[in-house]
């Protein structure tokens, strides 16, 4: 199917991400599935659509933009470590500044965790993942794919900031100042934080193991 499948996968991917989170569909889905159930189903759908989109990019006609070199595979290998840690430390934690936060009423600006580094840690992880994967994938389809994701992640953070400022009013600035007043690095290893670090390491190992089966590429082969 070539470019047609790639374009179709792109349209379906963005529709599956935009429609479920817009009113009135999101309140209806949350009423049926619950907040946690909605997040799990939405995440599973997102991963499935992402896998199809990446596979479709691999089946698109190959138009080389730069030559491949063995050193390029080390870029995503190195960057994906922090990406997995960011995801593990951000998924399911309170974060009133961004999307996907759970139990935001329990957010403590004095102990913001990963939110001290980024108001949108999941978007930061997406941007790092996409930018790192551009390097060893120098063909047109993959540059479009990963370049679009990187740009979407950066732009998405600005759009969410605008919406959250409007929704939260003065609370947004108050919380933001309180978070920025805290230390940038914290060595307070609570049980939840240790569990997050272990989950990130496990996710990294799982992605390396599953990558050949899911995407047909062994990330350890240079």
Q: What profile does the largest beta sheet have?
A: none
Shape: globular
Structural class: mainly alpha
The secondary-structure element order is HHHHHHH
Figure out the total of helices.
Answer: 7
Low-confidence stretches: none
Strand content: under 5%
Output the radius of gyration.
Answer: 19 Å
Our count of domains comes out at 2
Quote the average pLDDT: 85
Strand tally: 0
Determine the fraction of residues in helical runs and give it as a percent range. Answer: 55-70%
Distance between the termini: 29 Å
Mind sketching the topology for me?
Blueprint: H1 3-18, H2 25-59, H3 74-90, H4 121-134, H5 140-168, H6 170-180, H7 191-215
What would your notes on this structure say?
The protein is an all-alpha fold and 222 residues long. The chain has 2 domains: 1-61; 65-215, no CATH class. Helices cover 66% and strands 0% of the residues. The chain has 7 helices and no strands. It has helices at 3-18, 25-59, 74-90, 121-134, 140-168, 170-180, 191-215. Helix 1 (3-18) runs antiparallel to helix 2, helix 3 runs antiparallel to helix 4 (121-134) and helix 3 packs across helix 7 (191-215). The longest helix has 35 residues, at 25-59.
């Amino acid at each position: 199917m070539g470019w047609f499948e790639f374009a179709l996968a792109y349209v379906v991917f963005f529709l599956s991400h935009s429609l479920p989170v817009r009113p009135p569909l999101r309140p209806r889905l949350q009423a049926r599935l619950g907040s946690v159930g909605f997040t799990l189903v939405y995440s599973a759908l997102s991963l499935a659509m992402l896998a199809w989109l990446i596979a479709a990019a691999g089946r698109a006609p190959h138009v080389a933009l730069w030559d491949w070199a063995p050193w390029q595979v080390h870029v995503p290998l190195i960057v994906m470590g922090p990406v997995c840690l960011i995801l593990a430390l951000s998924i399911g934690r309170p974060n009133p500044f961004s999307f996907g936060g759970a139990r935001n009423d329990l957010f403590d600006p004095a102990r913001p965790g990963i939110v001290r580094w980024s108001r949108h840690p999941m978007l930061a992880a997406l941007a790092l993942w996409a930018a790192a994967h551009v390097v060893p994938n120098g063909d047109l389809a993959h540059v479009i794919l990963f370049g679009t994701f990187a740009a979407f992640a950066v732009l998405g953070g600005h759009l969410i900031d605008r919406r959250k400022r409007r929704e939260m009013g003065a609370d947004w600035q108050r919380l933001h100042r309180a978070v920025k007043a805290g230390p940038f690095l914290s060595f307070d290893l609570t049980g939840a934080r240790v569990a997050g670090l272990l989950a990130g390491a496990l996710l990294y190992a799982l992605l390396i193991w599953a990558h050949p089966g899911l995407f047909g590429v062994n990330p350890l082969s240079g």
